[in-house]
Task: structure prediction
Amino acid sequence: MAKNKKSNIAKHSDDTILVLLNDTLSSHKGERISLGEIVDKLKDKGLALLIAVLSFPVALPIPTPPGFTTLFGVPLCILTAQLIYRSEHPWLPMWLRNRTIKTETFRSFVDKSKPLFAKISRFLKPRHPSMLTESSERMVGVLAFLCSLSVALPILFGNAVPSAAIFIMALGIMYRDGLSVIIGMIIAVVGLIISSSVVVIVALLGMTALEKFINFL
Result:
């Protein structure tokens, strides 16, 4: 096969997040719905949506308590690693897949999310499909995974930018917007440089302090 295979994430050209969420509600008849069922109904977009949801809180430029970034960073590491291996559906632990919420609560969430998705759709659209091929997707996964490691570690000033990069790349995957993916990748490189610089500076300061302490003794 001479042509490159398109990414699984980019193959459902007619599926939007809202359509898939509404289809999930239409096909579900019970009073409660599990997270596993929701993710499965979202098909390949479920992975990108979970990544976007988990990366958004850390991307906000607001003070956070200790351990906050790690709480989101560790699950992000698990999910972004699945981008590298091009998982068609996100893997979740069974205890998490089996968690349920009231169907009406989920319906209310979908209804309240419609204006947000409408605003996002104004800026994101299918373009630059070359950034959504198999090889490009793996590259995005590697960058997103490295950014997730940065988010998970307690690095001063080293969490928000990588998390924002993950969020933008995830949106680009969800909406098949190659331009958004490119922008996210650029921000990811910048974020990783910042994180690495902070780690190096802290390490050098620590070594200097240790040397002074030894000399003092």
Remarks:
- The longest strand covers residues 32-34.
- Strands lie at 32-34, 100-102.
- DSSP finds nine helices and two strands in the chain.
